[in-house]
Amino acid sequence: MMAGSSSIEWTEATWNPVTGCTKLSQGCKHCYAERMARRLKAMGSDRYRNEFAVTLHDDLIDAPRRWRQPRVIFVNSMSDLFHKDIPFEFIRMVFETMVACPQHTFQVLTKRSERLREIGGELPWAANIWMGVSVEDERVRSRIHDLQATPAHVRFLSCEPLIGPLPHLPLKGIHWVIVGGESGPGARPMQYVWVDSIRRQCARRQVPFFFKQWGGVRKDRTGRLLDERTYDEMPAAAGHRATVRQGTSVLELPIVSM
């Protein structure tokens, strides 16, 4: 879990220089990372000796520098890099590593958008750092405005778990939208009309749309098909164009930043 391959559909690897978090909003209610941390501690993993308490792993800050093969890397899949308990200096070192590894594409996702906005201007940025915020329903829509105010080259939204409609997404300066239903024990249902609305909004603004899953207690049974096809659209690594897969064809669409 610290630096390995990932089964998450929109990334290739994970890098966890921090583990542990605390619940912030309704999207955190059935946190998969918390369940995983509990399981790993029970298995005797030293990294999770504190279970899901915020824990810094200084020895992992430089790990991506040793990965020569280019990878798409989800940063802190087991935490939130902008948690209040993570010192600014540590966050800055993580960003310095990302800047120093242009062969990789780094995906950073946070629910702490206010802190992102507060310190974002003091961090080093590069085109290979994609910055995103989680937006599970209208109650946390303000996170998008915080993201739009940051100097990130590629900005994305993770509408997962989608637990309510998002009919008026502000997509100016947003380069990618991921949608997915909640999965696992106690999963809350996601409605087709919510997903379709977001897909149509993205199409109007030419924003790449990625449909991750329907979710549910058994996500393997519900799958990823939306109207009998998959949506695997992603921004290009350079941050200037988006590669869109449609069936067996590949199209190039400009990223709309306006």
How would the blueprint of this fold be written?
Elements: E1 3-5, E2 13-15, E3 18-19, H1 32-42, E4 55-56, E5 72-75, H2 88-99, E6 105-110, H3 113-119, E7 129-134, H4 142-148, E8 154-159, E9 176-180, H5 192-205, E10 209-213, H6 219-222, E11 234-235, E12 241-246, E13 249-254
Parallel strand pairs: 2-5, 5-6, 6-7, 7-8, 8-9, 9-10
Antiparallel strand pairs: 1-2, 3-4, 11-12, 12-13
Quick recap:
The chain is α/β, with parallel strands linked by helices and 258 residues long.
Question: In words, what does this structure look like?
Answer:
The chain is of the alpha/beta class and 258 residues long. The chain has one domain (3-254). Helices cover 21% and strands 22% of the residues. The protein contains 6 helices and 13 strands. An 8-stranded mixed sheet has the order 1-2-5-6-7-8-9-10. A 3-stranded antiparallel sheet has the order 11-12-13, with no helix packed on it. Strand 9 (176-180), helix 5 and strand 10 (209-213) form a beta-alpha-beta unit. Helix 3 (113-119) runs parallel beside helix 4 (142-148). The longest helix is centred in the last third of the chain and has 14 residues, at 192-205. It is globular and about 45 Å long.
Helix and strand run: EEEHEEHEHEHEEHEHEEE
The mean pLDDT is 91
With helices defined by DSSP (H or I, 4 residues minimum), what is the helix count? 6
How many domain modules? Answer: 1
First and last CA, distance: 37 Å
Instruction: Please indicate the percent range of residues in DSSP E strands (runs of 2 or more).
Output: 15-25%
Principal-axis shape? globular
**Could you name the ranges where pLDDT drops below 50 across 5 or more consecutive residues?**
238-258
Q: What's the total count of β strands?
A: 13
Helix content: 10-25%
Rg estimate, integer Å: 17 Å
Strand arrangement, major sheet: 1-2-5-6-7-8-9-10
The SS-based structural class is: alpha/beta
Please summarize the sheet with the most strands: 8 strands, mixed
